[in-house]
Amino acid sequence: MSVMIRKEIKSEVIIHATPKIVWEHLINFEKYKEWNPFILSISGSLAKSAKMEVEIKPPNAKPMKFRPTIITVDEGKEIRWIGRLFIKGLFDGEHYFKLVKEGDTTRFIQGEIFSGILVPFMKTMIERNTLAGFQEMNLKLKKRVELSVCE
Known about the structure:
Layout: E1 6-15, H1 19-26, H2 32-35, E2 39-43, E3 53-56, E4 64-66, E5 69-74, E6 78-84, E7 92-102, E8 105-115, H3 119-150
Antiparallel strand pairs: 1-8, 2-3, 3-4, 5-6, 6-7, 7-8
Helix pairs in contact: 1-3
C-alpha cells in the first residue's frame, strides 16, 4: 500500500473586472515579461494535452524551467497543468488558475497541489517561495487588469 504525500497552496485576489477581461490578460503569455514577476515566460499551445514550456522565478530562488502538460482549459474559467520532476510520484505539481465571477468582479485563484515522495523535503520552498510567487503574481495581475479597465 502506498501513501500519497500531498500539499496544496493557493492564493486568491478580487479583481475589479469581468472574468472575460481577466482571462484576456491571463492568456496573453507574450506580455508576461512586462508585468509578471513569478512566471517569466510561457510558450506552447493552450490546448488540452499540449506540452507547454514554462519558466518561473519564485522570490528568493533561482529561475526554473519545466515542461508541464495542459490538463484543463475551460475558456474564461480555468487553466490547469501538471508538471513532474523526472518520473510520476517523485515530485508532481498540478497548477491551476481559476476565475470565478462575483457580481461585477472576478475572484482570481492560483494554486498548486504538490504530490510525491519529495514533498516533505520541499515543504519550506513550497510554503515560502512558491506561495509568495503566487501572491506577487496575483497582485500584479490585479493591478494590470484594473489599470486597463480604467483606460
